Amino acid sequence: MKKIIFIKILGITTLLFLVNPIDLKAQNNYKIDVTASKFDPIRGHLDLGGSNVKGDNISVNSFYIEKNNEPFIPVVGEFHFSRYPHQYWDEQLKKMKAGGITVVATYVFWNMHEFKEGTFNWTGDLDVRHFTELCAKNGLNVLMRVGPFAHGEIRNGGLPDWLYGRPIDVRSNDKAYLFYANRLYQEIGKQLKGLMFKDGGPIIGVQLENEYQHSSAPWAFTYQDAPKERTAAGRDRKIVQDGVGINDLGNEFADVGRDHMKTLKQLAIKAGLIAPIYTATGWGFATIVEKGSIPVMAGYAYPFWTASNNPSPFYLFKNIHKNPDYSPVSYDVNLYPSLAAELGTGMAVTYSRRPRVKGESFLPMMVRTVGSGTNGLGFYMYHGGTTPSVGNYLFTEGTGLNNKSYDYQAPIGEFGKVSSGYYPLKLINYLLKTYGNDLAPLYPVFPATNESIKAEDTKTLRYAVRSDGDKGYLFMHNFQDHVVMNDLQNLKINITTKTGTITFPETGTFTLKAGSSAIFPFNVNFDDIPIRMATVQPFCRFTNKGKKYNVMTTIDGITPEIVFKGKAKVTGTGIKTTVRNGNTVIAFASDKMTEFQINGVSFLILSNNDAQNTYLSGKDNEEKLIISKALVLEDNDELTLISNNEENIDLTVYPASANLSTKEGKATKGKSPLKNSNTWHINLPKAEPFINLIQADNSHFVIKAGSVDLSKVNDIFVTFDYRGDRGICMMNGELQTDDLYTSKPWTIGLKKYQEALKTNDMYFHFLPMAKDAPYLSYLEKEVLPDFGNNKSFLEIKKPVILVEYKVNVVLKN
């Protein structure tokens, strides 16, 4: 029944019709049954796997990868070595490792290495061997993407110009093409000799081709208004497409395609490119090496190659193992694990299509993808760069893309500056790195409500469970691209397991805030400590001096607690211990660092903000957490702290170290948040950038930096916050980089130019946005200018110059 209420406000009587008051506070109760969840992977059916001289082994079953007979979930970050100055590769790889990356994926762009037919260049920024050795030095594995075709928004998709116009059917078993492809592989094999996994090297995977019989690039030799000439075999030109998408037509040439992919693998093996893992594009009916490669998947919520701004399906849970994104596919999904290669952590833009990919979109997609059954995350791009050129001869693909910049709106940008998306991604990267062996065998289960959820749905909880019928992890998020989400309140989830029902939360309800996500464990065993359920998310685990530590993080809007099975003896401070239904319940504040112990195992609880600023470093059995707003990089026994425009750096070390020393600045001890931690304040001398930034007119700026000195700082960044069409950076008569406006401020790092700046000025030119520009529909409403009666618009705020500080410290136990 309805209730009628009369109220008087400022003397005016108002009649309100309300729905039943109970409805206003109704819980959103969800339930899911995981008792039937059981999955026995198929083994021994794939021509994959191998061991090395150290006795390590890698194998692949139909659901996950194993390393030394333990389940292993790789966290793969894409970083193109040829798009970044080789002098700084080491630092950038350390940033990737600090972000939780375990495998670096990179392309070998054929047209850069064999610019002139028969002459190969493997020096400087093209030194693939040195790059791979640096990955090994930093404890990172490598997935080498050897082509011959790569795409990657590179001219001809990586095929050399000199192939064009010859009577050669590229990307086929044409004998002439195979001759050149084999020569390329042989050259790559020579460069990487001794660095393959079997030899004790870091290269655990080789990707063959890319998007074979699915996509292509345009040949650079074309004319305005002419039909596209595609870099695809003649027979395939009617089925390939631009970018990543769905192929509903199938592939009448699939058998021929599989034969070509098999041939490429044989050529790779003969060239010494022998790895336990081979991958090939699996999405959109692309062709793989049948039973000889893992078909890798993708997910791009903000593609530039489509004209639509419609919400994507990539934030909706589904069984991604049985039903991959961009299905239908060309292979039997029951035979292979689901492994992501290209999940869109950013996006390139074109002149006419300019999607803005914000950092907060990254983590929810990964929570959805892992919760849906993927056993490997691959971020494209994880690290941006600048596409090289020879003078003003450009290696970019063209077709409206940036001529130089390949920032990609990535977690680590074009100039190595960490973006906002870097930090939340750590929450899942660290989880997979240290708890992946527990998670990988668990199969995805979905609630009945899942079938009815559409991308535009803002009211229904998006969640899934991975479980073996009893233990498991609850995955949920509240994000959708191109849709404004609302907080979901009064939520409660009941999970029926073989040993009873688990309720999240056990008492009361919770709120999943707009944009947020969570991964909660139940019936798990962390270092022999049985956990019934927790409303905190596992972050990482480590060992120090024989003692085991489990680190978990709170989620904003959700009351944190851990329910341990049975009665346990708990010691700690800042916690509240009670007994509920015979189990031990630990409650604590959501915004404070908390530590407690059970049976000699330590549990550290971090706020969500602290977790995003936490780094795990140190050798086995000597690991520590470093908590700092500065970026923390590991370099043997030293730590490097990188701070953005802040000469005062704070860090907390857990468990505590006896001392900290540094040759730069002054270190003083501060108040620690926990007894088993210590905090230091480091004060560095304030640095002057010694840059003269001159505004020549309303659209031109000049940097004069002949006396620039970066010996005492890490980098200097110049940021232009503007509204316009594009920005161009020139120096010494050559295009250095460019920016197609997306509303993201344009930031340029000067470190890579420091020598050139001593004798050359740097010029910036901004062009106005036209009232009828084709990309306006991609821009957010709040940044669209009021053109009025004007046909164009340009606004440039005062540029900001920021100093990036760096300090090296040594911790002493």
Structure description:
By secondary structure, the protein is mainly beta. Among the domains are: 3-28, no CATH class; 75-420, TIM Barrel; 692-806, Sandwich (Jelly Rolls). Helices cover 12% and strands 34% of the residues. It is built from ten helices and 55 strands. The strands form 13 sheets. Strands 8-9-10-11-12-13-14-15 form an eight-stranded parallel beta barrel, surrounded by four helices. Strand 11, helix 6 (254-270) and strand 12 (277-281) form a beta-alpha-beta unit. Helix 5 (175-191) runs parallel beside helix 6. The protein is globular, with a radius of gyration of 27 Å. The N and C termini lie far apart (69 Å). The relative contact order is 0.09. The model is unreliable at 1-26 (pLDDT under 50).
Describe the biggest sheet? 8 strands, parallel, barrel
Number of helical regions: 10
Which shape, going by the Cα principal axes? Answer: globular
CATH topology of the domain at 75-420: TIM Barrel
CATH class of the domain at 75-420: Alpha Beta
Q: Give the neighbour order of strands across the main sheet.
A: 8-9-10-11-12-13-14-15
CATH architecture of the domain at 75-420, by name, is Alpha-Beta Barrel
* Straight-line distance between termini: 69 Å
Structural class assignment: mainly beta
Instruction: Give the beta-strand count.
Output: 55
What does the average pLDDT come to?
95
Helical residue percent band: 10-25%
Q: Could you name the CATH homologous superfamily of the domain at 75-420?
A: Glycosidases
Rg measurement, Å: 27 Å
Q: Proportion of β residues?
A: 25-35%
Low-confidence regions: 1-26
